[in-house]
Specification:
This protein is mainly alpha-helical. Helix content is about 60%, strand content about 5%. The chain is built from 22 helices and five strands. It has helices spanning about 25-40, 80-105, 130-155, 155-170, 185-200, 205-210, 210-225, 230-235, 245-260, 260-280, 285-290, 295-305, 310-340, 350-360, 365-375, 380-385, 405-415, 420-425, 430-440, 450-465, 470-495, 505-520, and strands at about 5-10, 15-20, 45-50, 50-55, 70-75. It has a five-stranded mixed β-sheet with strand order 2-1-5-3-4, covered by helices on one side. Strand 1 and strand 2 (about 15-20) form a beta hairpin. The longest helix is centred in the middle third of the chain and has 31 residues, at about 310-340. It starts with a strand and ends with a helix.
Length: about 525
């Protein structure tokens, strides 16, 4: 039995609108939907139907809501209170949408379905053998951590902390905790959470969760070695990561001070002071490197990483550019293989040839399959596309075109199998004459059981055709929100420069150290 109902809503502005819901919807969920419709905070909404206030925790059917019932919405808060709550609610929804997008990205497969969209690598760029569930939790943690760092860059520390705490849950859900010793991400996250707590002046929580700082320190030891020897080897004699110790020792000193352990605070502040001196770079050195064509940020990070040695810094930057180029080409090849699959020779398809054939007017999926079968040979690819389309009957190809049922039945009446008719119509994009030619050439001898896929697509279209305009509009709105959330998340993850984390001006850390050293003088 269909329990879908439409409720007519009179907004506080006097305008009438409507909501599609179900009789078993809880009152609290209906209130949220009404608030969204009226663009008001949920706490500011009072809903009255049939002379009764909407009650949370009770289904609408038990509150005498029926199809075409009328409900009046009233505001219960001042403009200032509404604005504050609305901002809070928007932030909450934004975080929820981003968290949902991060979960979907962790589950996302590559375009050809052969593997995950995101893979985990070591510092050296090698793969890590891990269970799929652990990979998903690591990706979730890393993704939300990057989102938190983006919020922190905008000085949105409360939002940043929420993202980072969700990221922490992802890391802690990893069953094989030994994995976290192979990567330093969890250590950086613990340190960043502590820094956010400090930025929010939450000294009490910072002191209570000082274990995070100990965890961060141990994570760096596990990942880099006791004397950073593994990091030095991997990074080619340089350690841009060394700058994180400034903030680590500083926060350890601050928590020690506020817990009353003055001797330990002095020790950590001394270590922080030494690291700060190591990280201080004279403008003249930066200028010398910039004259070689490097950007200021690159120069500052490289000089810190190479103990202020100009020659070593320049060599490190040149190696970095070369390595980044190799990584880019390798990643591009990997992306192409994931998106289109490999050729018969095991290579990624040639992007230049793909573009050339697309410019000629060939359909993209046919070109991709032809390039794969021809192993990127231009002449052979053209021959397949023009003279032998039957070779494109690859069982792994997918087509968006859904054949017309009437045309399909006509071809089947000629004695051809349904699967072969579907494939021929897909390749010919519904041209019955071209489809018959393909069938006569023998493509039906390599059938694929794809009728189920077609039936699913037809069933999906049928399901959507049965929706009301309001339901379709809501479905489209939700899909658009999900896409926007995923794009925002991907932008934060993929656009960042890998040097951003280490390009800190340290002026705030320097001032904090001076403040606490003065406090110690009064002890």
């Amino acid at each position: 039995m269909d329990n879908t109902i439409t409720i007519k809503i009179k907004k506080p502005t006097g305008e009438w609108s409507q909501l599609v819901t179900t009789l078993d919807t809880d009152g609290s969920k209906f209130r949220v939907a009404v608030a969204e419709l009226c663009q008001l905070p949920t706490q500011a909404v009072k809903v009255i139907c049939r002379g009764k206030n909407l009650k949370d925790g009770i289904p609408l059917v038990e509150q005498r809501y029926r199809d075409n019932s009328r409900a009046i919405v009233m505001e219960t808060l001042s403009e200032e209170e509404k604005l504050f709550l609305l901002q809070q609610e928007q932030e909450r929804k934004h975080i929820e949408n981003q968290f949902s997008a991060a979960q979907k990205l962790a589950l996302k497969k590559s375009s050809d379905g052969s593997g995950p969209y995101f893979e985990i690598e070591t510092h050296a760029g090698g793969g890590i053998d891990l269970a799929e569930e652990d990979r998903q939790n690591l990706v979730l943690g890393m993704t939300l951590h990057e989102k938190g760092l983006t919020a922190a860059d905008k000085e949105e520390y409360s939002t940043a902390l929420k993202f980072m705490e969700e990221a922490e849950a992802g890391f802690l859900a990893v069953k094989d905790q030994e994995l976290l010793k192979k990567i330093d991400n969890y250590g950086h996250l613990c340190l960043d959470i502590a820094w956010m707590q400090f930025k929010l002046n939450d000294i009490e929580n910072l002191s209570e969760t000082s274990w995070r700082l100990n965890t961060a320190e141990q994570s760096f030891i596990d990942s880099y070695g006791p004397n950073n020897e593994r990091l030095i080897e991997i990074k080619g004699g340089a350690c841009p990561e060394m700058i994180v110790y400034v903030r680590l020792y500083l926060l350890q000193g601050i928590t020690s001070y506020h817990s009353g352990n003055v001797p330990q605070a002095r020790k950590f502040f001394r270590l922080a002071s030494e690291k700060l001196n190591d990280m201080a770079i004279e403008p003249e050195l930066i200028s010398l490197l910039m004259e070689m064509g490097f950007e200021e940020k690159e120069c500052r990070v490289s000089l810190r990483a190479c103990n202020k040695n100009i020659e070593d810094s320049a060599q490190w930057l040149f190696r970095r550019k070369e390595n980044n180029s190799i990584k880019f080409n390798r990643a591009q090849e990997k992306r192409l293989k994931k998106k289109y699959g490999a050729t018969v020779g095991g290579n990624a398809i040639n992007k230049s040839l793909l573009k050339s054939f697309l410019d000629m007017g060939f359909e993209s999926k046919l070109v991709v399959e032809a390039l794969k079968q021809a192993n990127n040979d231009e002449v052979t690819t053209l021959q397949i596309l023009t003279d032998n389309p039957g070779m494109l009957m690859n069982k792994n190809m997918e087509y968006n075109f859904v054949p017309d049922r009437d045309t399909l039945e006509i071809l089947m009446l000629m004695g051809f199998e349904e699967e072969a008719c579907i494939r021929a119509l897909q390749i010919s994009y519904g041209d019955p004459n071209a489809a018959v030619d393909l069938l006569m050439s023998g493509c039906h001898e390599e059938p694929e059981n794809i009728s189920g896929v077609i039936d699913e697509e037809i069933a999906e279209e049928t399901s959507e055709s049965q929706m009301t305009p309001e339901q379709l509009e809501e479905l489209e709105r939700q899909e658009q929100l999900e896409k926007e959330a995923e794009n925002e998340l991907l932008e934060d993850i993929l656009v960042k420069d890998d040097l951003d984390r280490f390009d800190i001006d340290l002026s705030e850390e320097t001032q904090l150290l001076a403040t606490y050293l003065n406090l110690l003088e009064t002890q």
